[in-house]
Amino acid sequence: MSKTIAINAGSSSLKWQLYEMPEEVVIAKGLIERIGLSDSVSTVSFEGDKHVVVKDIHNHTEAVSILMNDLKSLKIIEHFSEISGTGHRVVAGGELFKSSVLITDEIAKQVEELSDLAPLHNPANVAGIHAFRALLPNATHVAVFDTAFHTTMPPVAFRYPVPNDYYEKYAVRKYGAHGTSHMYVAQKAAEYLGQAPESLKLITAHIGNGVSLTAVDGGKSVDTSMGFTPLAGVMMGTRTGELDASVIPHIMAKTGISDVAEVIDIFNKKSGLAGISEISSDMRDIIKGRAAGDAKATLAFDMFVNRIQKYIGQYLAVLNGADALIFTAGIGENSVEVRDAIVSGLSWFGLDIDESKNVVGADGVISTPNAKVKVLVIPTDEELVIVRDVDKFK
Ligand code: ADP
Predict the structure, then answer these.
(1) Confidence of residue 161 (pLDDT cuts 50, 70, 90)
(2) Where are the alpha helices (DSSP H) in 173-258?
(3) Record-annotated residues binding Mg(2+) (predicted)?
(4) Domains of the chain (ranges, CATH numbers)
(5) 65-93: per-residue pLDDT in tens?
(6) Of 175, 265, 340, 341, which is least packed with CB atoms within 10 Å of its CB?
(7) Is any ligand 1 atom within 6 A of the Cβ of residue 329?
């Protein structure tokens, strides 16, 4: 028996989940928020209790040491050495990392060098990596890349129609994201359907705060909706998804915003459901607003659904038909309304939901027996993929 911890370090947060392996049992989990700001909050969930501490945590190194000491003081572990593996979600692996890797000094340097592709995330990922390697010198440390699953995309999907130099010299291409989640639910779908992954054409729809869809052919990602960064693709909680790039200079000229980074920040943080509804980025609030007849919430909901439907249409074309559509993540797993709205507009393609199966807590097939394209709900589990990958290197 040994313990392995999955780490997801964001720009100002650190999410973790501690497992007993190889049993794959979650022992404890937690979240440290507001790192680098005042009144940081560390929450540890253990044996049904939530332990919350508020204090200033200045950086990720400090966050890791607080987390490790919390594990000891709450008697979740006795010694640091009980944790024999750490798995780090890394957002951008570029073209370099096609699968998970054992972290060495050289790998940590390469992850840092890829920061251009994820300026908010990769530096935080590297800080987490350094902190754990310092505190647990004898553990196995593994990097698991959000982009790895998408490295099988062919050039016809990943290239942008811009001058070749931009790709060749500046690495401008589609990388995608949420790869661990798309891979996990695609594999699970094959299990649920009792078929080999190699024989299946799937469309996986990860619909949470961030939203991405992937066309999976024979177990491999062949196209995905997120792009050079997670701003691309469908409309999301606070992100635009795709729009005409010419909007950017127009907004700058009209509003007087002189820094393009500010416009990109608005596209990332103040757009999507939040920008259209002017209520919230949270789908539960949008659904409430829509039910109460709020016109902006209704438009936000309809636009959100429409963008997802259009990507499903694209991927039915890319794959030349599909065996199944899989819903996952916060909205995909929980929202009966969103699933129903998406699928009910796609009946011509052979998608048909069974209303008695499209319920809260659904897990598995929710389509009617005769549906040409099956529809499934599969709860994602990115942390489990991460700790399994760590154990492969032990
Ligand atoms: P993240 O991308 O941050 O990991 P999640 O996958 O947790 O996000 O998804 C968050 C989204 O899931 C929010 O928009 C939230 O409203 C939505 N969500 C969670 N539960 C429900 C529910 N019961 N009905 C509708 N939406 C839900």
Answers:
(1) very high
(2) 179-193, 247-255
(3) 8, 382
(4) 2-145 (3.30.420.40), 193-377 (3.30.420.40)
(5) 999 999 999 999 999 999 999 999 999 99
(6) 265
(7) yes
